[in-house]
Specification:
The chain is mainly beta and 216 residues long.
Length: 216
């Protein structure tokens, strides 16, 4: 029989009501429904139910506090864990759990993982601060009124890149370079270029085709 804190006999049942007693116990088995467990109380094997207020999910060999009454045995709290050094906060039976406060802080000294079929973030302001950020997925959509990117160096790599807009303005303060194997420009209206000087250099052939060509 397991002993309380491994130093003495388990504490005896304590009468807190005519038909209600509290006692230390050990978790023997956990059911698959995550609601019922088997506990050992002073050498007696009993079936118990995890109380709603027991937010630390018990596992086998946990030392817990139980209350026994006419409605059965309930596990109130996990007191000691001699197994792995981790805990899961959850309601019994996969119930919904909400955390609310003026300020909430989650700190992971090594790693923080969020896993879900869907994650929704709602805030008036959202800031990501990291030395490096990686997005991995099949699709990424951004719908905003204004999208602003400021970077000292900006690189985009894709097998196919398509840009579509009603109006587009590109401002290059110094040098604009384009390197391509083949370039095709199709303008349905009028195109105009203004420059102080322009040089066109071709290796083989230069062709200009139109009903009327005016130079000078």
């Amino acid at each position: 029989m397991k002993q309380s804190l491994r130093l003495g006999e388990p504490a005896p049942l304590r009468l807190i009501h005519d038909d209600c007693r509290m006692a230390y116990a050990w978790i023997v088995t956990c059911d698959a429904d995550l609601v019922h467990v088997t506990v050992e109380i002073a050498g007696d094997i009993r079936q118990a139910q995890i109380a709603t207020g027991c937010l630390v999910r018990p596992i086998v060999d946990d030392r817990v506090l139980t209350v026994a009454g006419t409605d059965g045995v309930f596990v109130l709290n996990v007191l000691e864990r001699i197994g792995p050094n981790y805990a899961t906060l959850a309601l019994p039976g996969h119930g919904n759990l909400a955390i609310e406060g003026e300020t909430l802080s989650l700190t992971g000294r090594q790693r923080l993982a969020l896993k879900s079929d869907r994650i929704d973030l709602q805030a008036r302001a959202l800031a990501f601060l990291a030395d490096s950020t990686t997005w991995l997925g099949k699709a990424l959509s951004a719908i905003v009124e204004r999208f602003h990117v400021s970077a000292r160096s900006h690189e985009t790599s894709a097998d196919m890149l398509i840009e579509k807009s009603v109006n587009r303005t590109t401002i290059v303060d110094q040098t604009d370079s384009l390197r391509a194997q083949l370039q095709t420009v199709k303008i349905t209206g009028v195109t105009a270029e203004t420059a102080q000087s322009k040089v066109i250099a071709v290796a083989d052939d230069l062709r200009m085709d139109g009903q009327r060509i005016t130079m000078g």
